Automatic annotation (TrEMBL):
PANTHER family found in the cross-reference section: SUPPRESSOR OF ACTIN MUTATIONS 2/VACUOLAR PROTEIN SORTING 52, VACUOLAR PROTEIN SORTING-ASSOCIATED PROTEIN 52 HOMOLOG
Subcellular compartments: Golgi apparatus, trans-Golgi network
GO biological process, one term: retrograde transport, endosome to Golgi
An example Gene Ontology molecular-function term: syntaxin binding
Protein name per the record: Vacuolar protein sorting 52A
Family: Belongs to the VPS52 family.
InterPro entries: Vps52 (IPR007258), Vps52_C (IPR048361), Vps52_CC (IPR048319)
Source species of the chain: Guillardia theta (strain CCMP2712) (Cryptophyte)
Highest rank taxon of the organism: Eukaryota
Vps52 C-terminal domain ranges (all copies): 291-589
Every Vps52 coiled-coil domain range: 84-232
Entry keyword set: Golgi apparatus, Protein transport, Transport
GO CC annotations on file: cytosol; GARP complex
Pfam families: Vps52_C, Vps52_CC
Length: 746
């Protein structure tokens, strides 16, 4: 049993506390073991635990005996531990000495490391200083490199390559010279005061470069002017132009193309002049345009001279709308129906060219650009001659515009005036000679159309080009076309007036002596051909020309109206003159419809035809209908309708009498009307239409008369009289004119 206060317990406790693994929990266990009361409390608390219970049952003895045995074991262990400690105490002392020696060595090593750290810190400062110095040296090296590069560029820029001066002064001006000029231009770029102002080296070399530039400019000027002057002497045979049409046109184009090809290689030389001496550039450009202008004008003057000798007038001075001797000899009686039919109903426009006044294929040749006959000695109409010349002009102008735009990018209106003014003046002179004696209005109008087509082509190409020079060129051509119009329009009106004078001066007796009311007069035939030809061309002209052409056409229609009405009056006061005028106007209008003229162009003739129709309607109805119609109108105009004594002026008996007279003999009257129209109207369609209008005219009068009478008496004069009359009228009209309606396709 362990007694309280036993010193061995204290020694053991102290020994255990010195052990490295002793913890506060171990101390708490030691306190419980040293205090029996505490052990009892613990046993009461944890007695139910299975592990503790099993431990308490070991050996099956008394708990106290177990505790004593445990204490004895502990004391034995303690004694053994003390004995072991005493036995090992000398080794512990020796270990302590070793530990102290180690501490001394570690302290010495720490001192060495501290010294090494101090030395490394000094080396780091040295390294930082070296790094700063290295950065400074790098900046200096970069600055030096940049300075060397810029200085090298300056030296390369101003340094004269070997042989450059000799090449500029003495070298041949060819493709190799372009490379030398480019080198010189690169050197001259360093003379820009904004880039290299104040540099001594540049100021030193500047006089030398200026002298080389002046020498290059002088040599290029002489070279270009010499080549430009040679353009006019390479092909002197073109000035005589004693060639055929095709050879002349080809020679002109070939000469023009060769001139461009000779200068096309010198574009770099011209650009050098433009960049470094604009005055010389303008001198060269002026010389080129002046020389080419002279060449082109000479070409066109020669071409006009040759082509004018081969012009064939279609309508000559002896061709007139009315030629009395021709009328008497060729048309002793009525016109030949077959000839008339071929004009009216030809299947294709242009196939029937039986008259000099018809358009035929002349407009188609212009629109499709049919070249003049190339064989020498073969003549061509004046419009085709002018068409060929204008086509050559268009080709050369457009070619020259494209070439000049590349060779001389900076040009002015004055330069183009030098190039084109002489040529355009030659063309105006040539046209003036062509139209001076021309009496063919179709040819003159086609010539106007040719020029306007050329104007359109040039304007279209000029509008595509987005250069300042394009507008200037177009202004020159606008002036030319305006002057051309002022030149040819008076002649056109004169040619038309000559034809109309022949109509006005003709003898009415000769014109109407053997004329038929149904057949087309020679005047009408030719007038229809001429006026339809002029109107057909007119639809293709520009707005200004259309107005002038309309005025001429209005004048022609007015003169025709006068002559036809005079011819109608010369035939007497009967229906013959009215039928004649109607057929003539209808024939001209059908000619207009045949070629597809717009309604506006046909309107003047349409109005004349309608006017003549209004004259014919009452005339073809006959005397009986006219008298009845006049009597009905007289009653219709009575406002009050009362006579003497307050009685109505139109009695029922009188009204019945008028209606009976009106409805009597309808069939015979329709037969008479049909025969009259068949004998005097040229076209079946017009026979039926005139008859229908006459019928509707009378039907309207009768209807108004019946309505007036019924309103007066407030009852129908005769039961179903209106419907009976209408049914009778329509039935008989349909029966008589049914065949004409079917023939007319109505």
């Amino acid at each position: 049993m362990v007694m309280e206060g036993d010193p061995s317990d204290s020694i053991l406790e102290a020994h255990l506390e010195d052990q490295p693994g002793f913890t506060s929990d171990d101390k708490e266990v030691m306190d419980i073991l040293n205090d029996p009361d505490s052990i009892k409390e613990e046993l009461v608390r944890y007695g139910d635990d299975d592990v503790i219970g099993d431990a308490l049952k070991v050996g099956g003895g008394d708990l106290w005996q177990y505790a004593q045995k445990l204490e004895a074991d502990l004391r034995q262990t303690e004694a053994e531990s003390i004995e072991d400690y005493v036995r090992q105490s000398s080794g512990v002392a020796e270990l302590r000495l070793h530990i102290e020696a180690c501490d001394e060595m570690l302290k010495t090593f720490e001192d060495v490391l501290t010294t090494c750290q101090s030395e490394l810190g000094g080396m780091g400062n040295t390294i930082m200083d070296m790094k700063r110095r290295a950065n400074s040296l790098e900046v200096l090296a970069n600055n030096r490199k940049s300075a060397e590069q810029r200085l090298a560029a300056l030296i390369d820029g101003i340094a004269m390559p070997p042989g450059l001066a000799r090449a500029i002064h003495e070298g041949e001006i060819n493709d190799g010279m372009i490379e030398h000029l480019q080198t010189l231009e690169a050197k001259l770029s360093f003379l820009d005061p904004h880039l290299n102002k104040g540099r001594v080296a540049v100021d030193h070399v500047k006089p030398l470069l200026d002298r080389l530039k002046s020498k290059a400019v002088d040599r290029l000027r002489d070279h270009l002017l010499r080549k430009i002057r040679s353009l006019d002497s390479d092909h002197p045979f073109l000035h005589t132009f004693n060639l055929s049409h095709s050879q002349g046109s080809s020679a002109i184009k070939k000469q023009h193309q060769e001139g461009q090809d000779k200068l096309r290689k010198d574009c770099a030389f011209v650009k050098f002049l433009l960049d470094h001496h604009e005055e010389v550039y303008r001198e060269v450009m002026s010389k080129y345009f002046e020389t080419m202008g002279g060449i082109l004008s000479a070409h066109f003057r020669s071409e006009f001279r040759v082509r004018q000798s081969s012009i064939r007038e279609v309508i000559r001075a002896d061709h007139r709308l009315i030629d009395i001797s021709e009328v008497k000899s060729r048309f002793p009686s009525r016109l030949i129906p077959d000839k008339l039919k071929s004009f009216h109903f030809r299947s294709e426009r242009g196939q029937s060219d039986h008259s000099t006044f018809s358009l035929g294929g002349r407009l188609d040749h212009i629109m499709q650009y049919v070249e003049c006959d190339e064989e020498e000695g073969v003549s061509s109409p004046p419009e085709l001659v002018l068409q060929a010349i204008m086509q050559n002009l268009v080709d050369m102008v457009l070619s020259e515009h494209e070439f000049a735009s590349s060779l001389f990018p900076r040009r002015s209106k004055e330069m183009y005036a030098k190039l084109l003014s002489q040529t355009l003046e030659v063309i105006k002179e040539g046209v003036s000679v062509m139209v001076k004696s021309c009496v063919d209005p179709i040819a003159i109008l086609l010539m106007i159309y040719c020029v306007q087509v050329a104007q359109s082509k040039i304007s279209e190409k000029m509008n595509v080009a987005e250069e300042a020079g394009a507008a200037e060129e177009e202004d020159i051509f606008q002036d030319f076309f305006l002057q051309f119009s002022m030149l040819v329009w008076p002649r056109f009106k004169h040619a038309v007036q000559l034809q109309m004078d022949s109509v006005r001066s003709a003898s009415l007796h000769a014109l109407t002596s053997r004329s038929s009311t149904k057949d087309v007069h020679v005047l009408t035939l030719r007038f229809a051909e001429l006026s339809s030809a002029l109107l057909d061309i007119q639809t293709r002209l520009n707005a200004n020309s259309v107005q002038m052409a309309k005025a001429t056409n209005k004048y022609m229609i007015k003169e025709l109206e006068k002559v036809v009405k005079e011819m109608k009056n010369a035939m007497g006061s009967g229906l013959q003159g009215n039928f004649f005028a109607f057929n003539q106007f209808d024939h001209i209008l059908q000619a207009y419809y045949e070629i597809g003229l717009p309604a506006q162009s046909c309107l003047p003739l349409r109005m004349l035809l309608d006017e003549q129709t209004n004259v014919l309607i009452p005339a073809v109805l006959g005397k009986r209908f006219l008298e009845l119609s006049a009597e009905m109108k007289r009653y219709l105009q009575v406002e009050e309708g009362e006579g003497e004594g307050g009685e109505p002026s139109l009695t029922k008996e009188k009204a019945k009498e008028i209606l009976d007279a009106f409805t009597r003999g309808w069939k015979e009257e329709f037969v008479r009307l049909k025969r009259l129209l068949q004998d005097n109207i040229a076209r079946v369609e017009n026979e039926f239409l005139l008859a229908k209008k006459a019928f509707m005219h009378m039907h309207l009068i009768v209807t108004r008369f019946l309505k007036t009478v019924n309103d007066m008496y407030e009852v129908e004069l005769l039961p179903n009289s209106t419907s009976d009359i209408e049914q009778n009228l329509f039935q008989q009209f349909e029966e008589i004119f049914k065949l004409e309606e079917e023939d007319a396709g109505i």
